[in-house]
Amino acid sequence: MNFDDTPQEAEFRKLARTWIEANRPDDLLAVLEALNPDGSKKASTADIVRVSKAWQKRKADGGWACLTWPKEYGGRAATPIQRVIWDQEEGAYGQLSQPFAIGQGMCGPTVMAYADEDTKRRLLPPLASGEDVWCQLFSEPAGGSDVAGLRTRAEKQDNGDWLINGQKIWTTGAHFCDYGIVITRNDPTVPKHKGLTMFWLDMKSPGVEVRPIKQASGHSGFNEVYFTNVRIPDSQRLGKVGDGWNVSITTLMNERFSIGARVATGVPEFFDFASSYRMPDGTLAIEDASVRARLATWASRSNGLKYTAYRAISALSRGERPGPENSIGKLVSAPMMQDIAMAALDLQGPEGARTIDGATPAAKLYQQLYHAIGMRIAGGTDEVMRNIIAERVLGLPADVRVDKDVPFNKIPTKGR
Amino acid sequence: MNFDFSDEQKQLRDEARRFLDENCTTKEVRAILEGKDVYDRKLWKGLADLGLLGIAIPEEFGGAGAGRLELCIVAEEIGRALAPVPYSSTVYLASEILLRAGTDAQKKEWLPKIAKGEAIGALAFVEGPGNPTPGGMKASVSGGKLSGRKTLVADGGVADFAIVAARAGSGENTLSLYLVDLKGAGVTRANVETVDPTRNHAEITFANAPAALVGNEGEGWTLLTQALDRAAVLVAFEQIGGADRALYMARDYALDRMAFGRQIGSFQAIKHILADMYVSATLARSNAYYGAWALSTDAGELAEAAANARVSATQAFQLCAKQNNQVHGGMGFTWEADCHLFYRRSNLLALTLGSLSWWEDALIERMRKRNAA
Amino acid sequence: MNFDDTPAEAAFRAEARAWISANAPRQYEDDLRASPFGRVVLKNADIIAASKDWQRKKADAGWACLHWPKEYGGRGATPIERVIWSQEEGLYGKLSSLFIIGHGMCGPTMMAYASEAHKKTRLPPLASGQEIWCQLFSEPASGSDLAGLRTRAEKSGDDWIVNGQKVWTSGAHHSDWAILITRTDPDVPKHKGLTMFFLNMKSPGIDIRPIKQSNGQAEFNEVYFNDVRIPDHQRLGKVGDGWNVSLTTLMNERLSIGASMPTGFPELFDLFARLTIDGRPAIERSDVRAKLANWAIRANGLKYTSYRSISALSRGEMPGPENSIGKLVAGATMQDIATFAADMQGPTGAMKKSEGVDEAGLFQAMLMRSIATRIEGGTDEILRNIIAERVLALPADVRVDKDVPFNRIPTRGR
Ligand SMILES: Cc1cc2nc3c(=O)[nH]c(=O)nc-3n(C[C@H](O)[C@H](O)[C@H](O)COP(=O)(O)OP(=O)(O)OC[C@H]3O[C@@H](n4cnc5c(N)ncnc54)[C@H](O)[C@@H]3O)c2cc1C
Ligand SMILES: Cc1cc2nc3c(=O)[nH]c(=O)nc-3n(C[C@H](O)[C@H](O)[C@H](O)COP(=O)(O)OP(=O)(O)OC[C@H]3O[C@@H](n4cnc5c(N)ncnc54)[C@H](O)[C@@H]3O)c2cc1C
């Protein structure tokens, strides 16, 4: 057991480091982190997208975008472990890739698995290079955890096109995205998992309307997306008609497969904060026994996540598939972020209530108070993650299902 | 044993609830959250007309002359409704301090105005980050003029007067409380945004502002901690009111929302979340009742009972509010759903009057003292 | 709002106090005080004999099973009087643990369903502690899911023949009588084919085998039935109505208000008030305080919650649902506290025998005992379901076994 790179890994790391050294996007990061005089973040969504695209383009030109993708689709054909090494070396600049997380992490792999060769050669390179941004149109008002409960209709037209009507919700980034993958119901008379079909589409298609949703924090990161008679050619179908559920599982598997992807926990921020924050008696917060006791619990959890990721990386390094241990990440980190944010406010006494923006540890912890609400829900709620661990990892039986073999249009829709 | 409110007190609760249900829906709360105004003036007036601002003020000073139990009842309803008004600052803090320590003239000047809704009061004791300590207060008084900076004063932006902790010298027992007319000379204030914009907060700078002593000189820390203890019980009632409503909001959503062909409330993951919320809210209610008893009888155990009520209620409201978000799924993360109103308020109330860890510490210290005695 | 007795309550309390002070078995006082959770150890006396003696004495003076009618050995007292009595009895109440199941569950079930003649003969010796009862409900295949039980009762003339096995039966080894739930019809859905009886534990065909618990003691047993004969007149309730009869029993279990559940907090606080770590009082450490504060509000919260229920009783009303949180909070709190105490005990060697109390033993006993508290009479999970369904009105779990004949319900996983 050791943490050393193999000779090949070391060589790759050196290559990556050298390139990053020569191409450091400090200017771009500065835009991302700039503050207004009142301490609030200066960068608008447009700024964020612009600088992110600039960095992504730089990387793509250097052959450092979507490392594990084949070269013909804009990648580097790198091994999974090389991608991990790249992520480690990219470090804080990785923040600049945030707008592409969904497109490259989920939409790309789905397109790669199901689109025809032509389409792949056309769509994937600009996705890899950041010229096109993609979003994932899965959740609906009636179906989030229960994605298969979705109602957006796709109806086949005489000329072979599909006509889409319905509504998606919580679509992250839809307001600045060029393309999306959308899952629809083509047949409501068969059981829910059987009547679904997946497509990709141009977000500028006539009939697509994006309405930003204001979040609990007051910011807007996700949207409602309405479809009114949106036409999608059959050539944009991903997978077979009625096979959308299996296609979506490919996507979601990729979501949960992004290994080594740093999960935010708030622990380093809290550590920094407590190391410099002075208690009323003049001592540093980190000297206080109760702060230590709590921090120790969190630190060991966050370290546990880190080393769990290392275990997965080691599997990759040996060319194996990592085990299921990675599925604990968000379930551990999201509720912890919420606790940590509350503890940081608590340390400051009444003043903790003051809104602080910006990039200081205290400000990040304050924003985390809101951010954590969304983290505990996005991409599988805490409860759904526990079910997944229980069922897929521990082999426990699935919940009793009342909707499994029932035609979709016979499933009850309203409580009470 | 009669460890419950009386029928008359329960009637008062019904009345207050009816009034707030009509006049303080989340629409009104949002109007303050999103609008320019920093408190709901119409609601404030309505509370005055109903006699709820002066409920615990003796009749000779223009109040209703009811007791602290009645005040607890109203506090719970204020908390339930997330009322965007300076009730806690004016009623639990400013007027309670004046009642206990003010001169007759001070009472005569301010209490009738409070009861009529014509004056808002505040307590200014926070100077920068950290929970209050006697040594941490640097604001000073000399020759009847007060100077210094209070960094976060609840309702400081709208208050007419403030009770200000300041010292006349540098020694140990030099901290006193002073009454300052905030409309008078030497006062500048700037609103401060907090986690819960439905309650006003301001930073107030005093530069030789005329100040009148409240209570005895050198008694500032004692008066302040007593005032915080008493207010802690009342804020605990606000917290259990908020916790209860968040709990039932989550319950109702769990009954309505379907996933996988079932009400989400039929999943044990959700049922157990809600059961745990109920447990926490029930413990907090019982502890708040004990605080209410101690407050209303001025019992020797008040300090301990207050800390006990505060810790329990803070935990319950924070838990119920955050899990209410969780039960709402994606909806819980939107501005449109009301969940975040509770989340904001729960986090604000957890900090005002000193944060949870401070009160936890106080609870054990006070239990220890009693045990030793 | 006040904690005062009404004049009538005060008079009752004075009477109870006077009687107790004249009659309490003071010789056990120290032992009772020092006794760890769930188990009373008397240095110089047999606990069963001592318990029976005290119960007998109380019964003779009219202080046994206070709220039972006089003709069945009770006092015809009000619920609030019963609470006052248990407050006054205090420490000596620990001598009643032998009778908790009999008085709390078997008695009320008998009262509701037995014939008058049986009530008159069986209840007074139960009240006076001369006969001990146990409750034969749980089985290997059914604990939380009580209605999944398999012990068969088949009619034979005027008798029923019982075959099967019960498990976790507290006190079966020293019990004289029991209530027993059986399956009389396996062809109907599970809740419909059950029938309740009471029976003599000395009946031929009963075989009792103590189970050694994880804490090394043996309080509960396996009970085997081999052609055990029960006359039909010992049936409680109608044939096939056993489920409803069992609900009466379990309801009574949850109604024992004022019986405040131990959390271990006072003991822990006591310990920390004296403990020093690195030469400093442990209670001055902020991490210790944070933990203590957390448990304090739970222990206090339970206490004041029971006061709220008592107040309802005092007004002659039914208490609200708030009481349902007791065991759920107490069990988990006790386990956390005991774990923390054990942690503190570690290298500091902090817990020593002091003032005759073996603290290490006390918290160890708690650590082991809390496991059982979180299971017996409804597990934590079942209690959360009950709160969710009965208090918050959430839907019941989706059931796969509800309208299926019992003998068609799947019995093995995988
Ligand atoms: C910040 C953010 C970004 C998002 N981005 C996207 C995006 O880009 N694209 C997209 O398609 N979606 C996106 N989502 C949507 C997200 O996937 C859903 O919100 C999530 O799956 C929950 O679905 P829901 O909101 O419908 O809640 P519901 O499924 O209605 O859940 C409500 C409550 O019920 C519980 N529950 C539901 N089913 C079960 C069960 N079987 N067992 C136990 N408990 C259950 C949940 O845990 C939750 O507590 C985003 C959400 C957030 C918050
Ligand atoms: C000290 C002690 C004394 C006892 N005394 C007696 C006695 O005198 N007489 C008697 O009849 N019985 C007695 N019992 C038995 C007791 O009532 C049962 O142990 C209890 O009801 C749990 O049943 P089980 O052991 O079969 O566990 P199970 O019911 O098999 O439970 C196993 C686990 O599954 C969980 N579970 C089961 N069903 C559900 C559900 N629907 N939802 C969620 N989780 C579920 C439980 O919470 C538990 O965690 C005693 C038990 C103990 C520990």
Structural summary, described in words:
The complex is a heterotrimer of chains A (416), B (373) and C (414). Chain A contains 12 helices and 8 strands. Chain A is of the alpha+beta class. In chain A, helix 8 (267-276) runs antiparallel to helix 9 (289-317) and helix 9 (289-317) runs antiparallel to helix 10. The longest helix of chain A has 29 residues, at 289-317. Chain A is globular, with a radius of gyration of 23 Å. By secondary structure, chain B is α+β, with helices and mostly antiparallel strands. Chain B folds into 3 domains: 7-120, Acyl-CoA dehydrogenase/oxidase, N-terminal domain (Butyryl-Coa Dehydrogenase, subunit A, domain 1, Orthogonal Bundle); 122-217, Butyryl-CoA Dehydrogenase, subunit A, domain 2; 221-372, Butyryl-CoA Dehydrogenase, subunit A, domain 3. In chain B, strand 2 and strand 3 (145-154) form a beta hairpin. In chain B, helix 7 (220-256) packs antiparallel against helix 8 and helix 9 (302-327) packs antiparallel against helix 11. The longest helix of chain B has 37 residues, at 220-256. Chain B is globular. The two termini of chain B are 26 Å apart. Chain C is globular. Chain C has 3 domains: 7-131, Butyryl-Coa Dehydrogenase, subunit A, domain 1 (Orthogonal Bundle), CATH 1.10.540.10; 134-245, Butyryl-CoA Dehydrogenase, subunit A, domain 2, CATH 2.40.110; 261-378, Up-down Bundle (Butyryl-CoA Dehydrogenase, subunit A, domain 3), CATH 1.20.140. In chain C, the strands form 4 sheets. Chain C has a 4-stranded mixed β-sheet with strand order 1-4-5-8. The chains are: A alpha+beta (416), B alpha+beta (373), C alpha+beta (414). Chains in contact: A-B, A-C, B-C. Chains A and B meet through helix 10, helix 11 and helix 12 of A and helix 7, strand 8, strand 9, helix 8 and helix 9 of B. The structure holds flavin-adenine dinucleotide (2 copies). One flavin-adenine dinucleotide binds next to strand 1, strand 3 and helix 12 of chain C. One flavin-adenine dinucleotide (FAD) is lined by residues 101, 134-135, 137-138, 143-145, 168-170, 220, 372, 375-377, 379, 381-382, 385, 397 of chain C.
